[in-house]
Design goal:
Helix content is 28%, strand content 24%. Helix 1 runs parallel beside helix 2. The chain is of the alpha+beta class and 323 residues long. It has helices at residues 57-71, 89-97, 119-123, 183-191, 194-204, 216-236, 243-258, 318-321, and strands at residues 2-3, 11-13, 21-23, 25-29, 35-40, 79-82, 101-105, 130-134, 141-146, 150-155, 164-170, 175-181, 286-294, 301-306, 311-312. The strands form five sheets. A five-stranded mixed β-sheet has the order 6-7-10-9-8, with helices on both faces. InterPro entries: PGBD, PiggyBac_TE-derived.
């Protein structure tokens, strides 16, 4: 949800969401929250492939995202994970035809009359009990698992085994107990939640510019989304800054690259001056200058400067300053 409190035909109200009023958007993301695809919800005119219309709104959104993944041209073993709003047995069949893997929780009334044990009977069994059925050609599996409540899940990629151990708190015994957890539930818990993680990261430092145009929240959200994705890539490359520190560094770099040079007297340079741009190894050239200035590295007088950084740097210190 993109927060918006004005008047617009596409504004939604969803009870129970952290952001109840605003523009709704379908999002596909990785496990860590890197956003791969986003499509604003526009009611019946939402940009989804018309051939998926008969499968319903949720299925058409997932299949459109799958088409985007396939269109990238990478022959990768994608595994798409989604919640029970989207999952239906026709959706599993379509994703299987595309050669992709998928796992998702499913509502009991969307299992196409799969002959599973009823939830009432499964609750009477011990905690950790599971009941499952597979299609005649073993295309996909639907299972019910007794956890705190009955948990229904379907997958065309993984099954029940190998089962794993899961720690839960028992109200009757007043202590932690260990129960068996199906493999497909472990996979779902591991890879689900990337969209929620990206929403949480963006909400911490959202742009607070207010405007009278309805598209301003969408525009600022795109900037926040691009910055969040950049931070995710930075962390993948072993970056040590947190989200706020990375956002500050981006802001400093943008201000320095777009500021106007003011005529002012000598002053001590800011300790974060050109912290990132001076080390990017792009378009840093030594040029002569008419007046002597202090070198940013050795603080001696020099007659040369860096064209990109626009600071005085002597030739001897040029490589050290930019590395």
């Amino acid at each position: 949800m993109i927060p918006y409190y004005g008047r617009h035909g596409c504004k939604q109200h969803i009870k129970g969401k952290p952001i109840r009023y605003g523009f709704k958007a379908w999002v596909g993301a990785t496990r860590l929250g890197y956003v791969l695809w986003m499509e604003p919800y526009q009611g019946a005119t939402t940009m989804c492939n018309p051939k998926y219309k008969e499968l319903g709104l949720g299925a058409s959104v997932v299949l459109t995202f799958c088409d985007v993944l396939i269109s990238r041209g990478f022959d990768l073993p994608y595994h798409v994970v989604f919640d029970n709003f989207f999952t239906r047995t026709p959706l599993l069949e379509e994703i299987t035809k595309k050669g992709l893997r998928c796992t998702g929780t499913v509502r009991e009334n969307r299992t196409s009359s799969c002959p599973l044990i009823t939830s009432k009977l499964l609750k009477k069994r011990e905690r950790g009990a599971v009941d499952y059925r597979t299609t005649h050609d073993n295309t996909f599996i639907i299972a019910k698992w007794h956890d705190n409540n009955i948990f229904s899940i379907a997958s065309n990629a993984v099954g029940i085994n190998p089962k794993q151990s899961a720690k839960r708190f028992s109200q009757s015994e007043k202590r932690n107990i260990v129960i068996e957890e199906p493999h497909m539930v472990s996979i779902y818990n591991k890879y689900m939640g990337g969209v929620d993680r990206s929403d949480e990261n963006i909400s911490h430092y959202r742009i607070g510019i207010r405007g009278k145009k309805w598209y301003m929240p969408l525009l600022t959200h795109m900037i926040d989304l691009a910055e969040h994705n950049a931070w995710q890539l930075y962390k993948i490359n072993h970056g040590k800054l947190d989200h706020l520190g990375f956002r500050r560094r981006v802001a400093i770099a943008l201000i320095e690259s777009n500021r106007k040079n003011a005529k002012r007297g000598p002053s001590r340079p800011y300790h974060h001056e050109h912290a990132d741009s001076r080390k990017d190894q792009m378009n840093h050239l030594v040029i002569p200058q008419s007046k002597q200035t202090r070198c940013r590295q050795c603080h001696k007088k020099c007659l040369t400067r860096c064209k990109k950084c626009d600071v005085g740097v002597c030739v001897k210190c040029f490589e050290t300053y930019h590395s």
